[in-house]
Amino acid sequence: MKPLCELLQITRYGMGDGDEELGIKLIANYLRLLDEDSRLPSFIALYNGGVKLLAQNSPVIEQMKKLEERGVKIIACGTCLNYYSIADNIQVGIKGTMMDIITLQTNADKVINL
C-alpha cells in the first residue's frame, strides 16, 4: 500500500486573519504541536506572505528546522521569495517554482491549507 502523501500549505505570515501578533502565536503553537505529533505532513509549501516564516529572523524558524530534520520537505515559492527580497535569506527549505507547488498539490492525497 502506498504511503499517504500530505501537503500542508502556508500562505500567510501567521495563522488566520486578524491581528498579526496573534497570528504568529497561533502558527508557532501549531508548528510546535505538529513537531510533537507522530502524524507529520510529507511536504510544507509556503507561498505569498508564508515564505517570510522561513527567513532568518522568523519567530518560527526553529520549529521549521525541527520539522525538516524529522523528514518534512519544505518548499518556498521562488517568485514570492524574490518579491519580498528574501531569496538569499531563507534558513530552511528549498526555493521552488509554482510548477513544483502545482505538482505537489496534484500528487498529494490530502491538502491542508493554513
Model description:
The chain is of the alpha/beta class and 114 residues long. The chain has one domain (6-113): DsrEFH-like (Hypothetical Protein Ychn, Chain: A, 3-Layer(aba) Sandwich). Helices cover 37% and strands 18% of the residues. It has helices at residues 20-36, 61-69, 78-83, 98-107; strands spanning 6-10, 43-46, 73-77, 94-96, 110-113. A five-stranded parallel sheet has the order 4-3-2-1-5. Strand 2 (43-46), helix 2 (61-69) and strand 3 (73-77) form a beta-alpha-beta unit. Helix 1 (20-36) packs parallel to helix 2 (61-69). The longest helix has 17 residues, at 20-36. The chain is globular, with a radius of gyration of 13 Å. It starts with 5 loop residues before the first strand and ends with a strand.
Quick overview:
This protein has helices spanning 20-36, 61-69, 78-83, 98-107, and strands spanning 6-10, 43-46, 73-77, 94-96, 110-113.
Distance between the termini: 28 Å
Helix proportion range: 25-40%
Name given to the CATH architecture = 3-Layer(aba) Sandwich
What is the strand content? 15-25%
Query: In this structure, how is the largest beta sheet organized?
Result: 5 strands, parallel
* Major sheet strand order: 4-3-2-1-5
Radius of gyration: 13 Å
Describe the global form.
globular
The CATH topology comes to: Hypothetical Protein Ychn, Chain: A
The number of distinct β-strands equals: 5
Calculate the mean pLDDT score and round it.
Answer: 94
Reading off the top of the CATH hierarchy, the class is best stated as: Alpha Beta
The protein's oligomeric status is single chain
Number of domains: 1
Organism: Carboxylicivirga linearis
InterPro entries: DsrEFH-like, Se_metab_YedF, Sulphur_relay_DsrE/F-like
Protein name: Sulfurtransferase-like selenium metabolism protein YedF
Pfam families: DsrE (PF02635)
